[in-house]
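Bug #2210: token dump truncated for Probable S-methyl-5'-thioinosine phosphorylase?
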Amino acid sequence: MTLIAIIGGTGLTRLPDLTIVRRERVATPYGDPSSELVFGQFHQQDLVFLARHGNPHAIPPHKINFRANIWALKEAGVGSILAVAAVGGIRADMVPGKIAVPHQIIDYTYGRPHTFFETDLELVTHVDFTHPYSARLRKKVLTAAHVAGISVVDDGVYGCTQGPRLETAAEISRMERDGCDLVGMTGMPEAALAREIGIDYACCAVIANWAAGKTAAEITMTEIEANLAAGMADLTAVLRHFVQA
Ligand code: HPA
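Reproduced locally. Full output below:
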């Protein structure tokens, strides 16, 4: 059994039902992680929780120290990461309030430190990233949702934008033509760094809004927060069955 980490995104700065055992500030060669690592028991299972945007939620997506976060989790002995992320829905079945388990990624970010293989190399290293998410963990999340009786969208191409602004309608149309089903700001380089360091990684995306231009209405933080709050009960049920499986 490998230690599981949950990385909490917008709407999940702390994990309800986590009995905290200890908190640890981990120093890494890349600087400080977004927050301390919170070690505890979640429904009788050991896990580590990390708040991706800090606690309180104050680090914008393009300023997250993804390398420090993933390095710190590796140091802590984590073998599996379930990343929770708020996203916008592009495909018609990506309805706000629902959860999706994406299977692919397209990266539109720029200027983010995105690799561990940069300096002090003996050899140039190119990791395989054909299937960015762990098949084992995706299956485990989908089974957990099924057992919990929660209907989730079982695939999706996650397009990762730079943020922190939301997209234009034309950007979303382009992403849709590219094949994106969901849009978020934090999936990359997080997933790639996990692959580079050898941690299995999957994502539970909570759909917070229809992506730009998909409805006539302006996207507001109030709407995003309300949909995330509505999705949280389902999310915590999925997480519970996930850690217990
Ligand atoms: N775009 C990008 N990231 C997001 C969105 C969105 O519409 N909603 C929540 N995170």
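Output looks complete on our side. The two ends are 11 Å apart (CA to CA). Marking as cannot-reproduce; reopen if the truncation happens again.
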